[in-house]
Structure formats: structure tokens, C-alpha cells
Amino acid sequence: MAIARWMLVLAMWTTGFLMPVLAAGEATGDDLGGGDVAPDSRIMRQLDGQNLRYQVDRDGEFRLVYQLEGKRTQAAWIQSRTESLGGMEFREIYSIGYRCTGPIPQDIANRLMSRESSARLGAWERVRAGDDSLAAFVVRIPAHAPVDVLLEATGFVLSMADTLEQELTPASDEF
Known about the structure:
The protein has helices at residues 2-15, 41-49, 106-119, 147-168, and strands at 19-21, 55-56, 62-67, 73-78, 83-85, 88-101, 123-129, 132-142. The chain is α+β, with helices and mostly antiparallel strands. The longest helix has 22 residues, at 147-168. Strands 1, 2, 3, 4, 5, 6, 7 and 8 form an 8-stranded antiparallel β-sheet that branches.
């Protein structure tokens, strides 16, 4: 099901139906403020080359908010920071699908783990945010990946996270 939704998101992207949006007054690539981590110019060029709107946070992460079907929105983050393994440099792209106070309940954690085998790319990770736990779907791609790979990976994390959010909190559109 998530793969089918990802294909729909990708189809919507390529037809122009899926559009990145930002709320009024949020920063775009043209008005980046000072931060602790400089944004990766490779990502900035790719996003600007596609005329995508985004904002960059103090960690140098690019935040894109997409309008999905049914008036839903979903945010994805592309990290500027990269990591290396051997001779390969890679970066993370992620989207949040669930939030709770304290640890993620066991039944939900088991549900996330069972989905990973069908994901083909990426995995669910727990991220701590104060007293809260977030379930984020994360993919790692080569840091020098072409824009089409960057956008496909972004569409995939959006679909995975929004699917989970709709299942666990159907009345909510938090992320």
C-alpha cells in the first residue's frame, strides 16, 4: 500500500499536482538567515533549479512542505550534514509520521518494524524531542545524487510518513 501511495506521490510530482508549499512569511532560499550549520549549496542549487520553495533551519536542514491529496500537507527535511562510509558520502531525508509523549508504544513500534521489510528503501527511526518521541521515516542517499533521485526519495518519505499519520491519527494533519 505504501509503495502504491509513493507511486501516486511521484506521479503527482511529475504532473505538477504535488506542490511544495510554505505558509505566508516563511523563509525561502532567497532569504536564509544565519545559522549554526551552513546549508549545502548542492541541495540549494537542485531545489532552486526546480523552482521549489523551502526553508532552512539553524541545523542547515532544508524543510519542504508538500500539499497532498485531500488538502493534507506533509513536511520533509533534507539534511545538509553528510556522513561518510568508506569512500561514499551520503545524506538523510526524513519525514515525521507520529508523535507521542514518552517512548513509542510497543504495538506501534512493532507495526513500524513489520513495515520496514516492504519499504525497499529507508527505515523508521525514533527521534527524541524533549519528552516526546517521534517516528520518522528516513532514507539515506548519496550526497551527490542527481535531483531526480533526491525528489524520488523525498516523495517516498512523504508517502510513508503521511500513510502512518493517517492510520494512527486520522483526524490529525500535524506533520
